[in-house]
Amino acid sequence: MLFFEKGQPHSHVPVDYLERNTQIIYGRSLHMSPVSRSLVRPVFLFLLSAIILAAGTGICSAHAPLSVGSNEGITGATLISSPEKSFVLYTMLDGDGEAQYYRFPMENGQILYGSLQVPGPDSAVPDLVIIGPGINPSGDVPSSLEVPAGSGALLVRGKPPGKPSYEPFTPQPIYEVARFNITVPLDGDYYIAVTGPGDTRYSLAPGFREEFTAAEWLLVPWSVISIRLWEGQAPAVVVAPLIIMVIGGMALAVLYRKKQGLKPDLVSWLILLSGFLYLGGASMTVFQILHTVLLTGYSSGVVLTLLFMAGPIILGIIAVREGIPSPGPDRSLMSGIRTAVIGILGLLLWAGLIIGPLLALAASAIIFVRPAGRLAPA
Fold this sequence. Notes:
Jelly Rolls; elongated; disordered N terminus
């Protein structure tokens, strides 16, 4: 297996070949073969490109996730404090179909822009109503909606979705049913009310400026899982690729370490688990690509997703190799640095559901604080 190629050499392999092509770690120094050194720069450049690609993808097509809360009355409307920032809200109407409200504090000349989506082709289709000062009344607005004095209400009817589009950022199929784009004429609070049959699931994506806070960026992997559940996928199906990869990988690691006679080592197990979480997260993405392409057909966005996904895969492979070294000297300072880099890049590239990067960072911290002479055999 590719990950476990550092076992004891066969007796017939020439010694001079081993000296030229074997990575050797002694204490706090690191010597790498020409082959290993030749791979460092391309891998580093690829990971740097993946980070740039992640930022670029975010700028092009990402929406910051936002929670909804109870918003059935206009007084309890969900506040969208940055009305032009691109958000996305995944929710559903209550069983009675009571309208849900979203409030946008806006200034004259700002743009109220966005779209409304549903999870599937057979989903119930909601409507939305734009409410605010200076809005020209239009459409058969439900009489049950709350419209503040001095405001007009504009009905935007939802239409049954056609063939979905491929969204590379998540990835997921997008079933759009309505879109809005209004330049507001006056300062004040503007509202979007979503109305439809009871228990209608919908996604509201207001705004057009793609930007994230640090917390929003780091929590994207878990937000994506919530999207899968909103789409109606079973939780077990969503996480199955991750579980299979982690359990299978760790089982193989146990067998390998037992065969090599390696002693138990907390650091190695933390790094290994981190690496398999990275690979497991990537396998979840592969499954979702296949699921989405079956619905949308192939598009160039698939290549973008694959390129973005390659970062976690490379980091996962590096972590697994780092967690299963050959028997020999203690872990070096360079091992701690490499593990820390794996953790930091993992957070930036959404690898391992946040848990994987945190495990890698924990392992690197242990390496750094252990006295050099007391580092456990790897």
